[in-house]
Records
---
Amino acid sequence: MELELRHLRVLCAIADAGSVGRAASELGYSQPAMSAQLRRIERLFGGPLFERDASGVRPTRYGVQVLAQARDVLRRAEAIARRPPHSGPGAGRILRMAATNSPVLPGTVARLRNRLPEVSLTVSSVYASSRIVEGLEEGAVDAGIAADYPGAELRHSAAVTHRGIVTEPTFVALPADHRLRHRTQIPLAELAEEAWFVTPDDGAGWPGVFYTACEAAGFTPAAVHEFLGDRLQLQSMIADGLGVAAVQATHRPVRGVLVKPLVGTPLWCRYVLAWRRGGVADDVAETVFACATAAYRDLVAQAPHLRAWAARTWSVPAP
């Protein structure tokens, strides 16, 4: 078998989805066909590119290297095929973005303004990912950064397409003097008696996935404070010992707060770039995606707890 661009797209789709089954669904394959395709590709490369576990697949050390080169090759191939910018009247001149509560957003926007200075960019904060999808389908926005969860993938009509930016573990934020502060990883079950700060329904599956994970760990949270507000205010309350919270893996703790991974990684979250078909030029969508992934890499560089977890879990730096 000779390596083709479609093989590289298969590898990237699997990495973005974090699951062979989800990648198969997105590309229109059956799962057995996708699994067989992956085996043939891995034989071509001479080694495994993904590790498989109960939550899906993760790139091996070799797989991370292959994926980085695959994405570069695909970007170059798309650049060759794409039409010149602004070939239509006003094409690409306006980009209306919506974004959920994601730390990826600031770095993405900053890069977009540098990479696409000719595009008029507007950004609106929309907490619920379901509302972002509605905005895309109604034509109120052109693109959005949304979130979903394994087993509760983003749902939308054929008018919208999406691409996974990153699938990351969910960590827990604790007071710095917490009784489990010396643990490298925290068993979720040992937080059964804690008060939890939990954000409200995000239209994508949260907090349902949180309560499902607690149930699997054998408990129902003793106390829950619904919280949707300033992150510094949340951290201040955690530091004061008022509760704990599930947080994004790139969460940067303030003094008095620790961020730790959960044993077995019972919670995952995926950030997704979604856009209207025909409403965003291919080169613009590719640039937004590249800016978002670069922004995430910067966040990882500032999150030693995530890098340490990735080194133990994947034996490679986090993507």
Note: The chain has three domains: 5-81, 94-164+269-313, 168-268.
---
Amino acid sequence: MAIRSITRTHRASIRNQRQVRDGLDTLGFAAAKLWNVARWTAGRVWDACGQIPDDSVLKSYLKSHERYADLNAQSSQATLEELDEAFKGWYGHRNNGNEKANPPGYRKYGDDHPRSTVTFKEDGFKHDEKNGYIRLSKGRNTKAHWSDFILCAYDADPDVAIENVQQVRAVYERGEWRLHIVCRHDIEVEPPGDRTAGVDLGICNVAAVSFGDESLLFPGGGLKEDEYYFAKQRAECDDSFSREAQRLDRKRTERRTHFLHALSKAIVAECVERGVGTLVVGDLSGIRDDENGNPTNWGDHGNLDLHGWAFDRFTTMLDYKAEAEGITVEQVSERDTSKSCSVCGRCDDSQRVERGLYVCDDCGTVANADTNGAENIRQKVLSNPQREDRDNGWMAQPAVRLFDCREGVFAPQEQVADREP
């Protein structure tokens, strides 16, 4: 039995909502105002030299600004880091051919500022685990006196231990403030077995999993249907910043997040059932660029689908879910895994006859292309990969797991009667 440290985010309600609401409102408005100041500053630099300053530059430049002191120093830094991430996301959209993508905007609707999320790092909070309180720090400008703070009494799920708190986020959700508490837990885990599985990530089939003697496909049709549906509904909104447009954006994000959670949970469950101790995932960090580092053109629909597929986010979900079950997740390069035969090792572009079919001219292997890629990924970490003739029927006809929209889970194809968006 091994001890592992895992990080989890737990949502908690605030018992004394009425007492702390005004204070949290003030910090939420302050975070929005600091965002706007930083966005305006970034815009000026952009107009002057054609470059966007990163968060380190903004932190140095705005450190003496009066809005910076409205929040705890680390909370102000977190707001600027969030803006930097938003600009990087916009870069990604533009680099993948999405000319309609807009840079991050200002947080203001008319004369009103929204209540932005406020992040409190280690110097910005104190946790009273025994009594269930978290003390949140204010900025110098928002304190009534030097020892002024916000004391939140929280309620988390009864089966959750709020311990070793690393970070706290105050989030305004559906008319009230909630706390997202990031904790580090030390847990005892035992690997389900010593087998190795490989995962190939894609767009049509969002994941293909090879166990060496059987394989599974997880089609992404449900996710793509959601994306097209919400894009169409949003296009009908007269104002892209209207309440309806924001509601649709939230709903789309929630649906995508749930899909990725369901997918990662299903893959880990299949691994546990088969005694897998090591899960190997293809590293897609460079998939959006060609060999020279330039953006790859996958066509109009391909570029949008590719950028909408949150590879890094999914891998993070898969990693922490597998970790809780004692499964080690490794990332390996996907180079040539789609071109190579997993049976004899021949590498040739022409062997991928169609998008979903792989045929080897040397050994005659006929396989689902994604399954063949997943098996190549699996063999990358094996000391003695099996490059020999063998029964490959499981590669040609992998089992399929579909997303059941009614239940919100992945299930065998024959069990999913309907898939409505």
Note: The first strand starts at residue 2 and ends at 14.
---
Amino acid sequence: MTHPFLDLPPLTAGRFAAIEDRVARLLGTRRDVVIAQGEALLPLEGAIRGTAGPDTVALNVITGPYGQTFGDWLRDCGARVHDLAVPFHAAVTAEQVREAFAEHPEIGFVSLVHAEAATGNTNPVAEIGAVVREHGALFYLDAVASVGAEPVLPDTWGVDLCVIGAQKAMGGPAGVSAVSVSERAWARMAANPGAPRRSYLSLLDWKERWIDGGRRALPHAPAQLEMLALEACLERIEADGLAAVTARHAAAAAATRAGVLALGGGAAPYVREARDAAPVATTLRAPAGVDASELVARALERDPALPLAAGGGALAKEMIRVNHYGPHAAPGTVRDCLAALGAVLADKGLPTDPEGAQRAAEDAWRA
């Protein structure tokens, strides 16, 4: 008995290359694209370890937990790292990056997260990229959460290493990811004696064995299920139109924010300025004296399918995340999340206006 998920023919080199080309079109890039056979942490780490070494002076921007992780990897590579940390309720500015270069003109590498789904903020990459280009530094960007939810344009922004993943706004699985690589980044890796080789972390292996060979022979057997799922994600985005997909995410974020502001009960957007809020997810600050993780648990008791989560680590008691990405970037998801949060806040004896919240969300979505 055959099974559609088990009895799969091997994925050909031609089909693998065609999926890479579709990723390149999604990003509007003419640069090489490498699809990584694993969750986005694989190319995120591989790109840093391939380009950073003891001679690297890096500016590592921290607007959430992933920025902290990138700083750790850079230091592991022997790089001298200057952290630029901003409060998680805000975004970094191009002027702050410019000031960091003025203070440390030797900076040659900049690492940045575009959108932090974990904290709900998004950073102005276009403006920051202009500053990075002025100083000739290599620019590394984590666009895993932002791709599909807002524009991601590595060529236009001067991003040398742009990593994406399928599991958030693209609406796909977590087991496949990709990175676009500039010629400058390839040259940096080739000159780096510490760059991984003959390793699952090695991007150079893919360049030398796959790209330089004309993409005719795959280095190893690809994960068919994840590749087919990535292909399906790309097909769906192409069918809907990327502009429509990003608009839907922006509408979900605006509706969630407006609904929470009208709901009352002491909950409020965690990211203070709407311009700094990521369209992939909206984070909320729980009312004073109320445990966010408890609120989320009670809301999920009402409806386990809601895309709600408490903040991670130290943020678990104060932050609520509404993960309105992928198929959850929809009016019904926003309505259901607001209704559930209103109900659990009311159970706490807090005054809420659930009807007003729904009206505000609907008005924001239409706008």
Note: The chain has a mean pLDDT of 96.
---
Amino acid sequence: MRASLIQIAVDEDEPVGVRRRRVAALVREQAGADLVVLPELWTTGAFAFEEFGGAAEPLKGPTYEAMAEAAGAAGVWLHAGSVPERDPDGTLYNTSLVFTPAGDLAAAYRKIHRFGFDRGEAVLMGAGREPVTVRLPQLTLGLATCYDLRFPELFRALVDAGAGALVVPAGWPERRRAHWTLLARARAVEDQAFVLACGTAGSHAGVPQAGHSIVVDPWGEVLAEAGRDEEVLTVEFDPGAVARTREDFPALKDRVLGLAPPRR
């Protein structure tokens, strides 16, 4: 299976419409990949809190339309990163979109864990409620976004739902880059799954971004890692490694806590 993670540089002087067209062109260039992944909130920047309200789109807004067309043109599964979505009731969400190779919407995931504590995303956006998976022909993807990476219980739920690859778009800051790499590898090891974590380059509202998008295999080995600048990180991996790893080292079978109680 071939995956391309597009580590987009967010330039605060680049108009959103220009960036949207540029990213759509980059997606179309990935024809031949099975899966393409974009970062979190790449239209606005994950730390551009003041922009969320004005830049928010309906689910099927301009980013949806541009990414659906690009996925269909390239013939790829596209995780289009996330956008600030405005629900019809007015609530904002940090929403990820996944498209089929025909350009149809396969899934939408509203970020469950919102970052910021008592400010920013945590107070401006609503929280998603349900884990989301997407079944590809080769394996099932489990969806998470940025700050979600710090909450292993979400990833356990995704594995329980059949996920063999965990896809994490992010706008992760440079000052916590060590956590980014550590947590990506930890989620891969403990869940015996591939982790495809796609970050951004550039700066979001003055916050330098970590870059260093990374693909980790079910043993925790790093298959590929980007640098700090904008780039396309492409990697080939064997989806069958998930089943082999779980069979060779069946640690998931020894879980005790967090499992549903037996029926009586």
Note: The two ends are 42 Å apart (CA to CA).
